[in-house]
Write a structure and sequence with these properties.
The structure is a single chain. Helix 2 packs across helix 3. Helix content is 36%, strand content 17%. The chain is an alpha/beta fold. The strands form two sheets. It has a seven-stranded mixed β-sheet with strand order 4-3-7-8-2-1-9, sandwiched between helices. A two-stranded antiparallel ribbon has the order 5-6. It has one domain. It comes from Knoellia koreensis. Belongs to the ComF/GntX family. This is ComF family protein. Pfam families: Pribosyltran (PF00156).
């Protein structure tokens, strides 16, 4: 029997932050830069305020781009939580992997629980769900020496059996793209269109597969749309997405409980 999958499988943010505070290496808070632990008590409280009440939710940008799969997020991209996400990626704060990996893990748990095809695949022993991090650009990977999303994803799925989920670097960039910062939703979509492809060594694994794309932030949805397009083109049967947090744009991205979202 497979272990039951349930929301909240991962440690809550408070536990992760407490463990992080005990690390000796960080000398400043990743969110406010004040001297002290990796995340100070004030920023910990602020980050908790950004989490959705009641657990992960279905989220969608407004306007919702065509081709965007269902996306589950754990909170709002706001305040200290937004600064922690940025620090993990842009400031090389890899000490934040346990914190953000747990939050991504809660979104993954909830997405899989509410995905009928995934539940059926586990019941019928039809193979694992492929968890696919959004790829870093080649330049970013060379500069950082690693891929932050792959690290977060590995932490997020560490409690699953190999028969349940498989973390794979399926996607790779196929061309260079411009910096997304400051671009409109339309400009982001054009910038990312046909910018990803399935790596040749994984081509055999995609046809008929269930793929869960993971990323840190849902903004306009352009990145997830492009990832889903590349996977569908390679033959994926279904694609869904899970992110740490979602931005609130133009009056707010729409969110709803997972039950109501997936029962429509």
């Amino acid at each position: 029997m497979f272990a039951p999958i349930r929301p909240g499988m991962h440690a809550p943010l408070t536990q992760s932050l407490r463990a992080l505070a005990e690390l000796a290496l960080p000398s400043s808070c990743a969110a406010c830069r004040e001297p002290g632990p990796g995340v100070c008590a004030r920023c910990s409280a602020d980050a908790r305020d950004a989490l959705w009440a009641g657990g992960p939710r279905w989220s969608s940008p407004d306007p919702r781009p065509p081709g965007l799969p269902p996306v589950t997020s754990t909170g709002r991209y706001a305040g200290a939580l937004a600064r922690l996400v940025a620090a993990a990626k842009d400031d090389d704060r890899r000490d934040l992997v346990p914190v953000l990996g747990d939050l991504l893990g809660e979104a993954v748990d909830a997405a899989l629980l509410q995905w009928p095809a995934a539940q059926a695949a586990w019941r019928d022993r039809a193979g694992p769900v492929l968890v696919v991090p959004v790829p870093s650009s080649r330049a970013a990977r060379r500069r950082r020496g690693d891929a932050p999303m792959t690290l977060l994803a590995a932490h997020a799925v560490c409690d699953y059996a190999p028969t349940e989920v498989m973390l794979t670097d399926l996607l790779r960039p196929r061309r260079r793209v411009a910096d997304q910062a400051g671009l409109s939703a339309t400009q982001r979509a054009v910038n990312l269109e046909h910018s990803m492809q399935v790596a040749s060594r994984w081509q055999h694994a995609v046809p008929g597969a269930l793929c869960l794309v993971v990323d840190d932030v849902l903004t306009t949805g352009a990145t997830l749309v492009e990832a889903a397009r590349a996977l569908r083109r390679a033959g994926a049967s279904e694609v869904r997405c899970a992110v740490v947090c979602a931005t609130q744009r133009r009056g707010g991205a729409t969110t709803s409980s997972l039950h109501s979202a997936y029962s429509r």
